[in-house]
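quick one before i forget lol
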Amino acid sequence: MVETIVFPDIEKTLVDFLTSKFVAGGDSSKVFTKVPDPRPARAVRVVRNDRKARLDVEDREGRRGAHLILDRPRVVFECTDDAGGAADLAAKVRGIINAAAPGYIGAVWCDYVEDAGEENDTDPVTAAPRYTVVTDLIVRGTVLA
């Protein structure tokens, strides 16, 4: 019998995790999944984006299946700072996330973080300076009782 696995809402988990790290470090950056109106001057938007398929050893060898308790979300962090510090904010986010594994991100166990990179990505609508950080995580789900 195949177990039913429930995976965490990784966006909410990361919003809460980054917010706590920023507060602890005295950083006033706001973290969210949906941009509020008005948009904060210094902010990080967290978006799960799994549209690009990953072809790793589990997929090549056919070992990936319903019996696995792992989720592999690709997460994009959009970092903006009207004062010109978007690159510094992105570097800070990247450092916090890369240091999180192996370990807990909030209540979620993260086995591995694969840093896919950072990009200067000026917002096309507002022309606000923006840097994006892309990260692939391997997190554990829980067995539904």
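fyi The CA atoms of residues 74 and 136 lie 4 Å apart.
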